[in-house]
Structures are given as C-alpha cells and as structure tokens.
Amino acid sequence: MFGIGGKKKDRQLDADLDELARAETLAFGGVGIAGTLLPVTEAYRRVEAALADHPEEVHERIDRVLDEGTPAGKVYAATLLDRLDPAAGRRAWETLREDTAEFGTFTGCVMGRTTLREYATDRHSEA
Questions:
Q1: What DSSP letter does each residue of 15-52 carry, written as one string?
Q2: What's the whole-number mean pLDDT along residues 81-106?
Q3: CB 1, CB 7: distance < 8 Å
C-alpha cells in the first residue's frame, strides 16, 4: 500500500479500483429517470478525487486497471490517465482503438453497447 491517507483510505481506494477493474457498464453520471449513481460511477469519482490529491501514488494502480480490467474498466482507467498525464492517456486510447471487446454504456436513461475501438475512436479522436 502507498499510504495516501491512512489504511482506511488505502482500502477504499483499492476497493474502488477493483470495482472499476470489473466494471461491466460505463456510466459517468446518473442513470435512469431518478439519475441514480451506479456503484462503479461512485467508485470512479472517489478514484478521481484521490488522483487529484495523490497523483503519483494512484498512477500505478490505474495502470493495473488499464492492463487487467474489463473493457469498461479500461475506459475508466484511460479517462483517469487522460486527466493525470495527457501523453499516457493518448497512448492508452491508441491501444484501445485496436481492441474490439464490447461493453455496456449508460447515458441518462439510454443503455447501449459499444466496442473499445468505437468508443476510443468516436470520443477520443484527438488523442
């Protein structure tokens, strides 16, 4: 453990990154009519906050999600890397453009499916 703020915060960060790594659905905001946050969205937001406070300590853990995560998990990781290190983010998106793995998406009330290739190309063409 890296010690970003005590054992409890380290355990929470590890749990949040595990949640991202096994994510089946990508949702950055609330879903459904009630705008409910999915547990994976809440985990993403906590990791994002930890990244802002402790970038170096969190970077290696995000790389693990990018390497070992589900397709949706890899998108979460690449998005976080974009914020931390734009060059690393560009490399991540370039790699994901070669991957045809599918994952679920959720935007508001609309559920969908896409591939890493489509997502990386459509949403990050400048990367």
A1: HHHHHHHT-SEE-SS-BTTTTBPPHHHHHHHHHHHHHH
A2: 95
A3: yes
State the virtual CA torsion across 36, 110, 124, 59 in degrees, nearest 10.
Answer: 30
The 10s digit of each residue's pLDDT in 43-66 is 999 999 998 888 888 998 999 999
What residues does each domain of the chain span?
A: 7-123
CA dihedral 85, 90, 93, 95 (to 10 degrees): -110
CA dist., res. 72 & res. 79, Å (int): 11
Burial of 110: CB neighbours in 10 Å, binned 0-12, 13-18, 19+: exposed
